[in-house]
Specification:
The complex is a heterodimer of chains A (242) and B (248). Chain A has 242 residues and is an alpha/beta fold. Chain A has helices at residues 40-47, 72-76, 94-104, 110-123, 139-151, 169-184, 196-202, 220-225, 230-240; strands at 2-11, 14-24, 29-33, 55-60, 63-64, 79-82, 157-161, 188-192, 205-210, 213-218. Chain B has a single domain, classed as Orthogonal Bundle (MetI-like fold), CATH 1.10.3720.10. In chain B, helix 1 (21-55) packs parallel to helix 5 (106-135) and helix 5 (106-135) runs antiparallel to helix 8. Classes of the chains: A alpha/beta (242), B mainly alpha (248). The interface between A and B is medium-sized, with 29 and 22 residues. Chain B: It is found in: Cell inner membrane; Cell membrane.
């Protein structure tokens, strides 16, 4: 479903991505972790080309996203993206946040889009908030709406860029629960996150990124109990010391 | 100071037909409003477009808008007016020139010049307000919109502009008030708007203080009403939960 081949990216002199190879198959849940500044956010943002790459190839659902001939908008419509800071549209109600892109990009009828939105809101437990505005919601609620907004495009893949990092601790659980349910429904997911409990429970495998490279890639039970690389060991020690 | 105030002057005959001085002020106010509204419409449309252009990734388009702003902001309004009124008509095609200079009512040709001048001048200022309004939005907004497959025009139309529009209402209100105040330059090329009528009243009646006091009061009331109106608009479009109520 997602394939990265020898992906490089430079920000001027900084080598942010250094020959990344990665495969995510249909229905798989992959967790990407690594120390801050390791390039994991940049990595996930290259997949729907919110970041361009300097070298290499990225394929999503059989389409080469780095090929200038690829219709990027059509591709992005099939790839859901959830941001660290939610990025809901503050001027629109919760319902309109969710229906905007199905109506405008997929040309779905308003009634159908609203029905879909209500179903999705129900799924993330926020049906009663459909008329609220984003600023009237808590962070956890906003992120759940953002997930519903992503799902409204009926994407083939969902990408999560540190979806719980900006949340207060007591709100992390509700967002992870939604993500867990989503994983169990068979959605193909790639998540940049430090929530190791989540990784352990639902990830098919964990990808450890450091200094722009995929250092280790393993099933969660192996990664957590028996990490191979020194940098991965160190990273896990630091996580546990909290 | 030995001055005989006479507030009844406005109801006295001007000596021309059966006009009283108040009629002059009413006619002047009409020109001022017609001028300011037309100039403001031009400024909003062109300034809005330029403001969007300045935020586009295309270097040619943003460069063009930047050049416009630099040109129109760095030349005094009065100089621009003289160029529009005295210079530009000489470069029109022969027929249009004759029409503009001779056949057209001189008041109307002055009106066209000032409206264009003031509209294009204010457009440069509106452009800057719109640009900063768009740039003040968090980058995540454009990202979120692009991530669901919106085209660039859709990103602007549905996500950036509705938010930027709300951000720029207060600075645009100032610009709107400036248009009314700046419209008084029209008196210098003979358009009989409010200030010109006040000057004429002062000259005809020798009641200088009354004439300019009334003009001042009219400008003041006009601008106060606009401020109130824009405040109402701002309140109407306020985003629930997001913007705190200010200035109460």
């Amino acid at each position: 479903m997602i394939r990265l081949t020898n992906v490089h990216k430079w920000f001027k002199d900084l080598h942010v991505l250094n020959g990344v190879n990665l495969n995510v198959h249909q229905g798989e849940v992959v967790v990407v972790c690594g120390p801050s500044g390791s390039g994991k956010s940049t990595l996930i943002r290259t997949i729907n080309q919110l970041e361009t790459i300097s070298e290499g190839e990225i394929w999503v659902d059989g389409k080469n996203v780095t090929d200038p001939k690829t219709d990027l908008n059509a591709l992005r419509a099939e790839v859901g993206f959830v941001f660290q800071h939610f990025n809901l549209y503050p001027h629109l109600s919760v319902l309109d946040n969710i229906t905007l892109s199905p109506i405008r990009v997929k040309k779905m009828g308003k009634a159908a889009a609203e029905q879909l939105a209500v179903e999705l809101l129900d799924r993330v437990g926020l049906a009663h908030k459909k008329d609220a505005f984003p600023a009237q919601l808590s962070g956890g609620q906003q992120q759940r709406v953002a997930i519903a907004r992503g799902l409204a495009m009926q994407p083939k893949v969902m990408l999560f860029d540190e979806p719980t990092s900006a949340l207060d601790p007591e709100m992390i659980g509700e967002v992870l629960q939604v993500m867990r349910d989503l994983a169990k429904s068979g959605m193909t997911m790639m998540c940049v996150t430090h929530e190791m409990g989540f990784a352990r429970e639902v990830a098919d495998y964990v990808v450890f990124v450091d200094q722009g490279q995929v250092v280790e890639q393993a099933k969660p039970e192996e990664f957590f109990s028996n990490p191979q690389h020194e940098r991965a060991k160190q990273f896990l020690r630091q996580l546990r010391s909290h | 100071m030995n001055y005989n105030w006479d507030w009844n002057i406005f109801f006295k005959s001007t000596g021309i037909g059966d006009e009283i001085y108040l009629d002059w002020f009413i006619s002047g106010l009409g020109w001022t409003i017609a001028l300011a509204l037309a100039a403001w419409a031009i400024a909003l449309v062109i300034g809005g477009l330029l403001g969007v252009m300045r935020t586009l990734p295309n270097k040619w388009l943003s460069g063009l808008a930047t050049a416009y702003v630099e040109l129109f902001r760095n030349v005094p309004l009065l100089v621009q007016l003289f160029i529009w009124y005295f210079v530009v008509p000489d470069y029109l095609p022969e027929q249009t020139q004759v029409w503009f200079k001779q056949e057209l009512n001189p008041m109307v040709s002055a009106y066209i010049s000032v409206t264009l001048c003031l509209g294009l001048f204010t457009a440069a200022r509106v452009c800057e307000q719109v640009r900063t309004g768009i740039q003040a939005l968090p980058k995540g907004q454009a990202n979120a919109a692009m991530a669901v497959g919106f085209t660039l025009p859709q990103v602007y139309r549905h996500v950036l502009l509705p938010q930027a529009f709300r951000v720029v209402i207060p600075p645009l209100t100032s610009e709107f008030l400036n248009v009314f105040k700046n419209s008084s330059v029209a008196s210098l090329i003979g358009l009989m708007e409010l200030l010109a009528q006040a000057k004429q009243t002062a000259e005809f009646s020798a009641n200088i203080f009354e004439a300019f006091t009334l003009a001042t009061l009219i400008y003041f009331t006009l601008n106060m009403s606009i401020m109130k109106f824009m405040g109402w608009v701002e309140k109407r479009v306020r985003i629930p939960g997001l913007m705190v109520e200010g200035g109460k």
